[in-house]
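Researcher: Going back to the complex we discussed earlier. I've cleaned up the inputs and rechecked each line, so this should be the final set. Can you rerun the prediction on the complete assembly and write out the structure?
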Amino acid sequence: MSTAANFTIEYLQYLDPLGKEVAELPEFARDGAKVLELFKEMLKVRSFDAKAVALQRTGKLGTYASCLGHEATHIGIGAAMRPEDVFAPSYREYGAQFMRGVRQRDVLMYWGGDERGSDFAGPKHDYPWCVPIGTQCLHAAGAALAFKLRKEPRVGVACVGDGGSSKTDTYAAINSAGAYDLPFVLCIINNQWAISVPRSAQTGAKTLAQKGIAGGLHCLQVDGNDIIAVYEAVSRALEHARSGKGGTVLELVTYRLGDHTTADDARRYRGEEEVKAGWEREPFIRARNWLTAKGLWDEAQEAEWKIECDAHVDTEVNAYLETRTQPLEAMFDYLYAEAPHDIAAQRAEALAWEARRA
Amino acid sequence: MSSNAITLIEAITQALAYEIEHDDTVLVLGEDVGVNGGVFRATAGLQQRFGNDKVLDTPLDETTIAGLTVGLATQGMKPVAEVQFDGFIYPMLDHIICHAARFRTRTRGRLHCPMVLRVPWGGGIRAPEHHSEANESLFTNVPGLRVVMPSSPQRAYGLLLAAIRDPDPVIYFEPKRIYRAYKEEVPDDGEALPLDVCFVLRDGSDVTLVSWGAQVKETLEAADALAKEGISAEVIDVATLKPLDFDTIAESVAKTGRCVIIHEAARTAGFGAEIAARLAEFSMFDLKAPVERVTGYDTHIPLFRLEMKYLPSVDKILAAVQRTMAYS
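Model: Rerun complete. Updated structure for the full complex:
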């Protein structure tokens, strides 16, 4: 037998878990200024995330999906994208969305039971949070198809988890991106757990990046806790797609340090040792060590920045808490461009009922 | 004036061509819709005429078609996707129900999804398994959709134009059994029909016959037969099931006092149940007789040796009308 085709999956990492350089840094990272900017954004997200969990615990927010541990993947993706690109998140990539202009109060509104959260600030063409797993991948591919047909230099970017990489829709997006040669980037954020099911139970594939091979896309596995690697990998993939050289599947390897959502208790299905190891590889240690060694960051600066971050979060939380509930008729008013007679009649019925009770 | 008598499926092709030509954002996609022109020929000649960027063959996966269509529609295009057969639509439900139907509402109007799914629908063409489903009521229960089913070449043309121009998602069922049943004049004038009205096809005073899709053919034949017996039947083609124009049905029943609903889908929770429920709610005191339903049975449509025994027939409609005529 001869070989019909050969494939390899490369792995991208610049900083080890303690911040030691393991490869020659890409151009953007060398003077440290950009990395510092990204690191500060990561801290901002962590501050937000802690507050959101606290709000849920005190009954001021509905179920919330924490992003603890994912900060480098999310910030790296959002920072590398252009405003005109389209972002199709799953439901915890807040860092990426913040980089695109979505406000913390928008996220809180969504998990706080108000649709207006998905009418967020930031690019009006971006997709809202997507709870059915994996479907957003095809929407990003469809967006990419629209860009290709209109000859616009824009990219459709989707995020999906390691669990979501098993979904039909995710394969379908990869396949169609290859078939139509679309400007498409799929970020598989492998945080090792799909609620209670470990990565090893999702697939027999050695990497999740290799799922792109079957569709004819570029594939790369990335240390998702290394902000330099994430930003570089996503930037390259976007540039590739934008210049008509095809789509990419990136597997960003990270770890879900928290529960799946506030409705979950991960202690039921995973051991403390594993979580402890996760905390040793998390994204802040290495970035902080590296920036400190370069003389760009110290404890005092971090303490000061955290105060700023918390103050910003407080402003956003207050704005969220002060938002009045939508009027009853809002459930009818956005169903169709123009309400059909049935909907108009039911709207009137609901308002009349409410008026009677008042 | 040159004659333009065409079949229902030719009217669909004509409407697609008109919209592609007049709206830059319209495109057609689906399995075999390109060079092959669709398995029923609905897109015949369109790729040759308008090019590969307007008429796209897709990979063979309904999930792909649905998801790409949603992506295109939410980013400024007006995709018209062909679902090759009714029985292949099920993998698309996630995208239709969770996304297409609710983008507008979940984003408070920031994104919307102006797409059309064209679905060759129903039985009676001796097709293989999964090619003959009457599944419209799966969609009439979904908020945010419009559900349309023409029953003539003229209405196929006018309703498809309206569906494509509508800013919200439309499921457009095509009664494949009458794709080529007869021809009528369909001027290619770009005139759309309203997407929220029933059409009264025949005036009558004794009984109201309500149907849609392919069964409109049998329903009209039954009305002819009844006329010979001195029974005057009014015939209504529902055409747009969602939103339902119940007023037209209620006005007719106020006149006739009797109603027979004819549809191909299974009876329980079929769309006839919605019409019967509204008659009970709003037209109770106009009715002289119980509402009758002539429908498919609550079984799967059989393979083709038995399928005509499953489908409503002229005789079954006549028998139902006779039962209602026993009341006065």
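Model: Worth noting: Residues 24 and 61 of chain A are 44 Å apart (CA to CA).
Researcher: Good, that matches what I expected from the previous run.
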